[in-house]
Amino acid sequence: MGISLEQVSYTYQAGTPFEGRALFDVDVTIQKGSYTAFIGHTGSGKSTIMQLLNGLNIPTKGAVYVDSIKIDAVTKSKTIKPVRQKVGLVFQFPESQLFDETVLKDVAFGPQNFGVSLEEAEQRARETLEMVGISKEYFERNPFDLSGGQMRRVAIAGILAMQPEILVLDEPTAGLDPRGRRELMTLFKKLHDSGLTIVLVTHMMDDVAEYADYVYLLEKGQVAAKGKPKDVFQDVAFLEEKQVGVPKITKFAYRLRQRGYEMDSLPITINQFIKEVNGG
Question: Which pTM does this prediction carry?
Fold first, then answer.
């Protein structure tokens, strides 16, 4: 079934002088097996939605449905725990969540927290560490002795070790060099191809064009646009007005069109551009 948000609103520090409303009657559907992206200017509500998806935030109004589990303002914590096993949330700087004395112990902690035996948890940890590119020689090292990129991979392995059905990624490549970013995005694509549902928050429109099959644009806590990336990225002026932009090749094609070059539609990837200029 995936995840759906129905008329969800969220207010931070509700009932205090510091309360602030972050979401306003939002309706969102994330289909099982999809690769859904959320884009929007800083402060648009993207990270708030991500934390609603696994019960870290609870709706002030409306409801979040994860398969058959309903989360609303009166939901008890015991109901939310299974959701956090189904939905793995990777924060923008997940390495800040590392805490244990060795890489292996850190990654194995999550599964044990959900009742998995130590032996099975460590087996999962070995498998997911190798999956994200951390070799055996690092398993017994202190995670804080690793490079920033390696720490990021260890933190992601810790989420994958819990075997979530949905992987939520909040700016997962922030601060990485181009090579590290490309390697992680390739990993997430492989995970999606294997059947994992992916939810991505990003400011990188090229990544949305390359990987996502559906996109939501948020603005001031509301959905301003939604659809397939190919359709959403056609309105270049609108997206630039919302300060999110478009893929680089789309902006280039848009400028060509302004100078008189006829195109049936604006391409959003290099391959689409080549096909367009070669006559389809």
Answer: 0.94
